[in-house]
Amino acid sequence: MKILTAVKNIRDVKNDPFGFIIDSLIKIIVNAVIPIPLSGDVIARFKGPVLGFLASMVILTVMLFVTFIGIFSTIFLSPTGFFQFVTSSLVGSAPSTNEGFTQSAIPSQNPFGGQGMSYTSVTAGFMDPAYLLQFGKNHSGIDLVPNAAYYANSATYKQNKKIIVYATHSGTAAFYIDEEGGETVEILNDSGDLKTKYIHFKDEYVKTGDKIKAGAPLGEMGGTGFATGEHLHYEIQIKDGNKWLLVNPLSYIKY
What we know:
CATH topology of the largest domain: Glucose Permease (Domain IIA)
Largest sheet: 8 strands, antiparallel
Domain M23ase beta-sheet core: 159-239
Protein name: M23ase beta-sheet core domain-containing protein
GO molecular function: metalloendopeptidase activity
Structural class: alpha+beta
Order of helices and strands: HHHHHEHEHHEEEEEEEEE
Number of strands: 11
Radius of gyration: 32 Å
Distance between the termini: 103 Å
Number of helices: 8
Helix content: 25-40%
Keywords: Membrane, Transmembrane, Transmembrane helix
Shape: elongated
Number of domains: 2
Transmembrane segments: 50-77
């Protein structure tokens, strides 16, 4: 009898594999609930509800999968989405605005404040040959650190004991972490033809979409990303048609 049943099962699998699997599942479920032998006709009555249940589970699984893919893509695959998602709640408490900055859409001062470069030393220049020789790539901006005059005279430093980086012009901010891990703030002016970039923050006071005025505190100088020590990478780009051109930030600083 068992041999005949096995032969019948093999024939059923060959003729209708899906139906055989469904019938087997129904038998397992029904026998688990009603532990007495039931005829094939009785078991067959359960096929419709079971198929409906399985179809519902498939649809639910697909919907959950699509939802998960959408969330995953937004958070992890966007160039800045993941880091913005993680850091958006970590924006620090900002110091007050530096009123010594001239309100303009074009930068004219260095990001540490003071007159000209009085508070600042350049540790790597724009397109610096020594930088290219050491790191194997062009330097797209200038690297700045505060000098002795900054520590002696900066009211911001005396009050906060932090090296605060300020916006050098007005515009809209974007915060992201670059491909090398550098915490970055970028400001695009309202006319859309100039942007400044500030890299290596250890703490930020702005988030993407913030409207910024010159002298607004952007964050605290740090050494995140591609950096051999704490400093500020300061960069200016101007729009030329559909391209952005790098320019020397020192040519914008007025003395």
